[in-house]
Each structure stands twice: as C-alpha cells, then as structure tokens.
Amino acid sequence: METWMTCPCVVSCADCAVLARGFLPPVLAKLETHFGEMRDLKLIRKQLGEKHHVISEQLGANDTINRPKMLLQRLVRSSAHRCNLATTRCLPVTQRRGFLPASLSDRKVFDAKYPDRQTMSEAEDPGMNGGYINPPRIKRQFRDPYANWWDPQERRNFGEPIHEDNDVLGIFSPYEYTWTKPGPGLIMIGSFVAVFLGLSGLVYLKYPDQPTYPREFEAGLERELGGPGAVRARREGDEDP
Description:
52% helix; mainly alpha
C-alpha cells in the first residue's frame, strides 16, 4: 500500500528510481542554460538603455548649438528673396497681368496666321465655290462596271478629284432610268389603260347570261317561312330577277 501511495505508476519504486536517474540530469541542464540566457538578456538590455541615454543627451546638446545657426540662415534667405522680388516687381500686378505675348497680341502675327478670305469676281469664280475646279459631271452609274477601278464599288480611282455635287452623282444616289424618254413612256401607259378598259367593256357586253331560271314556290312559302310579314320565297307572277 505504501508503494501505491508514494509512486503513481504501476511498476515498483526501484524501477522509478532507475528512470529518475536517467531523466533528471538532462532536464536540470536545460533549466540552467535557460536561466543563464535570461541573465545575459537582462545585461544586454541594461547596456542598451545606458547607450540610448548617452546618445539622447548628445543630440540635445547638438540641437541647442544648431538652432541659432538655422534661424540665422532662414532670416538671410528670406531677406534675399524679398530683395529679388523688389527688384523684379517693376509694374503693378494688374498691369503685368494685362500683358500678352506677341503670338496673341501682335496684329502682324494674326494676319500671317489668319489671312483674310480671298474674294473673287463672278468671272473668276462662276461656280461660287472658291475657285474649285470640278471634274466632268458624270454619274457613277454610267461608268464601266468591269473596268479596273481602285474602288470597284464606287467606280473611282485613288486620289481622283470628286465633283462638288458628289452626293447626287455617287453610286448610291437615286438610279437614273435611261432606257426610255417621258414621251414614249406616257404613250405606253396610255395604251395600257385604253386596252384594259376596252377589254373590260367587251366582257361586260358579251358575257353570257346564266343558263338557269330561278325556281318558283307555291304562295312563296309564306306560311312555312313564318307567316305574313316574313321574307318569302319566289312565287309565280313575280318579276324576273
């Protein structure tokens, strides 16, 4: 019972002693090295704190020495800048703002850049198109569709000048029918109307009548169809339809 009270394991106390002899020395050695490292870290932190204190004292002393020098340098620079502004400020600000470069204010520069529109007489410019020389007024549909054109769809070569009325001369303008003239066209339309009306009249006059005769009923089936006042059928003595 004493063995169970002192040792929690199932084996005997002799076995526990053997295990302790082999396990405890490495653990103790690790603990000693760990505590030794902790002492070294404390010493390093202490040394760093002392060095930081010394450096901060040195920096404070340098700031107290350099601050007057920096103030004097700033004063000298500001005074020199003011002198330069005084020498360059020859005119009031509003007057200097009104000045424009020659490219925007000189009349000669404006005339060279934007000359006046050239006016031409009616003899020099009969088409009133600025002297543009128009090519012959030929509709594109009348050009050879099988020729070696640079643009086969428009039937036009590269760089070829176009007419000023190209919008009504292009290939997509309304097609112009040239296979007949207005006079012969009116004659053909009138002939068609005359033939159609003449044929209709002949059919109306010569069309045969129906080969049957309407049937007649006794008393017009008045009683069978609803009595007096009802729409009756044809009876003997009625007019021919």
